[in-house]
Amino acid sequence: MDFDALFTDQIDQLKRDGNYRYFAELERKAGKFPHAGNHVDGEVRDVTVWCSNDYLGMGQHPAVIAAMCEAVQRTGTGAGGTRNISGTNHDHLLLEAELADLHGKEAALLFTSGYVSNWAALTTLGARLKDCVILSDAGNHASMIEGIRQSRATKVIWRHNDVKDLEAKLAALPADVPKIVAFESVYSMDGDVAPIRAIVEVAEKYGAMTYLDEVHAVGLYGARGGGISEQEGVAHRIDLIEGTLGKAYGVVGGYITGSAALCDFIRSFASGFIFTTALPPAVAAAARTSIAHLKTSQTERMQQRRQVARLRDALDRAGIPHMANESHIVPVMIKDPVKTRMLADYLMQEWDIYVQPINYPTVPKGTERLRFTPSPLHTDADIDHLVVALRSLWRQCALAHAVA
Ligand code: PMP
Fold this sequence. Notes:
Blueprint: H1 3-17, E1 26-28, E2 35-40, E3 43-49, H2 62-75, H3 83-87, H4 90-103, E4 107-111, H5 114-128, E5 133-137, H6 142-151, E6 154-158, H7 163-171, E7 179-184, H8 196-205, E8 209-213, H9 228-231, E9 240-244, E10 254-258, H10 260-269, H11 271-274, H12 281-296, H13 299-318, E11 330-333, H14 337-351, E12 353-354, E13 357-358, E14 369-372, H15 380-396, H16 400-403
Parallel strand pairs: 3-12, 5-6, 5-7, 7-8, 8-9
Antiparallel strand pairs: 1-2, 2-3, 4-10, 9-10, 11-14, 13-14
Helix pairs in contact: 2-12, 4-12, 5-6, 7-8, 13-15, 14-15
């Protein structure tokens, strides 16, 4: 059988639909973020990166770099095993203690990514809690959807951020089955923020466990970077808070925090925790430094907010519509996959601006967009340059009607 032909058929379909995924070949340069090299045809051009999830530039923070270098010299490169078989290093436990403290929980458990933490935790909870029903927000991330699916628990989807719908769905379930309400705080593509206090209250009323993904909020919100749950003062009422070390903290890895019993349960049963090599200790050391820094420093968060507001104002003045939300994510809706890609290509080729087009299936068809994530390190000049470029391309591409 010609397998390659089967593969190319489907790839060609993606290309015809405008949904084929290309990526830029970047060369990050320590201390230069958000500027990076972009490799094209043997040349390296300096570009401004506008779509990074290294939201605060912590991936190039001198203290985080120093912590990783020190730990590599001290411990070597890899962990040397799975967590249960020789892979648990002192640095992992220090990081878990730091994370438990960040969210005010008894315990924390590390995973190799935020994706794996969601998938492993939800698969385990859904599969091992007898008759469990997982109530999942319709906007939840693929890692949660996959975890729930593979758990084979009953799944009930509630309308995105709609507490009334959640309550109706909870009320319709038998009182004595375990229920888990799974949701996010900041949704990555629209940048909207969940009404987490109201969700927690409804979940408590029906005795449901709360599972909150704070991947796009940790480090960024709350006085110590504990996320929206800290900002809203409800972290202590949420049973499980999940996060990443790969976005605002600038490193890599994922985690859950919760009660000691919950973390021990996941540690004991989750295949995504048990059967994989632990994160390098140097990664743990770098992440701990980043978290500790953002627990006390407000500088990065405040400067990021200033730059987000500045970009929004400049877009308004240029007449470029962007989605309103309360977060640091600035989506500019194009609503067509081909136009979105074309605009991103022009920005890169003519203006040395890199923003990745966001197409289906990351977002629903017809809501294709450019998603800008201003960091504290984007200068006023970077913002002005971006808006001048967008205004010029807007006219060139006659986009006004496309986004109306
Ligand atoms: N949850 C959400 C909401 C995400 O957007 C992502 C990644 N984009 C993840 C989890 C996975 O996190 P990580 O990148 O650390 O795997």
